[in-house]
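Box 3.1. Reading complex inputs
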Amino acid sequence: MQNDIVLTEPKTVAVPAPLLQAFDSINEISYVPEGKVLFTRGESPTGVYLLYSGTVSMAVSSPNGRRLALHTAGPGEILGLGAAVSGRTHEMTAETTSSARIGFICRSDLLRFLQQQREVSWSLLELLSKDVQACYELLRIVGDRIPRGRG
Amino acid sequence: MDSIKYTSVYPPGSLLFVQGQMPRGVYILCTGRAKISTCSNEGKTLILKIAEAGEVLGLSATILGKPYEVSAETVEPTQVNFVKREDFLRFLNEHGEACLHAAQELSEKYHAAQKEIRSLGLSQSASEKLARLILDWYQNGTEKAQRDLRLKLFLTHEEIAQMIGTSRETVTRLLSDLKKKQIIQIKGSTLLIRNKTALEEMANS
């Protein structure tokens, strides 16, 4: 896409193995082709996606068609977690950039599971904290790229 | 939480914590506001938000035991409850509900940071970003109080510039343009939105 701006890759935030194992019981796994949109900006969260294989592009976009590709998620990452926990609409769009094996946990199952499994809640806190820190890192990268003084 | 918190009142301009510092604990804003900023490798300062009463600051760093990613500075007299890291982690471990609340708070911060990335990275011009910032202040105000187009300005032009990634001179010029076009009016520290539709058009241009 002509309007794409691609940032340098931030650190991958992989899901700890115990958390992936804990999710096994409530996880629906499917094979997804390249170009499948998992969620788009502005959509209410329906659940979280666990990426077992393949890659997913995470991008933000504006109404005038500009797109900022922030990250290419790889195996071991969980997508849409912040929105699923907060219930706020997605700020990013996630689209597969290769065929992928993806697990899905619906939001109500996730929240119920978190309430019942205390040890999982702690892993989740660590994961969200890493997500937040990765976002701050991206913000600094974006901040460095904006020319100051534009009208 | 009452037994592990330390309450203090800080004057404006007090640094609660600084980016790069190892986390001592979390700061819960009881009253007042704090400026949350980050500084890039190239030395550019970005103000991410103005945190308000009820927010927990320093959460992700405290959980991870990694240096604070942002700095927090009070912008008005502010009452803060401080909880030391070891006490906070023990509290989370013993209270499942607190763990979920912390997850909610982190998710809100994640959402806000993504929104900021989108706004900074995709806006075409500083005028677009300034219009969006003024509308955000208006929207955030109306969630808590009555619908009022009058906003209290508690940031300097330099600080507004650091919020939208531009220069102080550009902010001064843009505010002056908005006043000339009668889109806003500024009296002392009060900003009045006179033409919200025009502001919305600028924000979506």
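In summary: Chain A is about 35% helix and 30% strand.
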